[in-house]
Amino acid sequence: NMKITLEDDMSRAEAVLAMRREAMRGGRASGPVHQRVGFGYDSHRLVEGRKLFLGGREIPHDRGLLGHSDADVLLHAIGDALLGAAGAGDLGRLFPDDDPAWKDISSTVLLETIRSVAAEKGDTVHSVDATVVLERPRLRPHIDSMEETIARLLCVEKERVSVKATTNEGMGCIGRGEGIAAFAVVSMRGNEDEDTCM
Ligand code: MG
User: Fold this and answer.
1) What pTM, to 2 d.p., does this model score?
2) Cα(161) to centroid of ligand 1, in Å?
3) What is residue 102's predicted lDDT score, i.e. its pLDDT?
4) How far is the CA of 45 from the centre of ligand 1 (A)?
């Protein structure tokens, strides 16, 4: 804690805060910073008569993912990974699928909410790596805009967000095009915790 009385104290406090912010962004660490990693997985069924949303973008396709929200499987996997890293439960606990409040809601809203829950605990997203598994449509033309959208939602530089796509080589239900799955790893940074064993 710093005592702030004079104008000079204020600028010193601002300098300390700026150093801490820099440390949390991964620059020169001026104090102890912890890093946590979370993992997320999700899958949804592809059906006719639904729009396809992936990574917060609408993707042109003849079918879309079935779910209580917009069923954006990629944002759900990232959201679960973020909650895992923050030790804040899971997507189903935060947004129950029998709650009408989340019916047809854009998953971008869910991800923004999760990010602010983590931020309240003092954790900021450091990096995101995700893989979408699907046979069709081809995602390559949309990867850039998905990464951009995810980076914006999580307040992180685009260079720290990676979205990859692969097919399942025709094997199993994903291979038959019955649905889409996504895996994600999120790393987060925050102030060092007290050692609970001390
Ligand atoms: Mg889901």
Assistant:
1) 0.82
2) 20
3) 85
4) 10
What are the C-alpha distances in Å from 198 to residues 54, 190, 192, 193? 45, 20, 14, 12
Distance 142 CA to ligand 1 centre (A): 20
The mean pLDDT values, 10 residues at a time, for the chain of 198 residues are: 80 79 61 86 97 98 96 98 92 88 91 91 93 97 98 96 98 97 95 61
Q: Could you give the 3-state DSSP secondary structure of residue 96?
A: coil
Cα(79) to ligand 1 centroid in Å equals 10
Q: How far is the CA of 153 from the centre of ligand 1 (A)?
A: 18
d(CA 82, CA 190): 13
Q: CA 43 to CA 49: how far, in whole Å? A: 18
| Amino acid letter, 114 | I
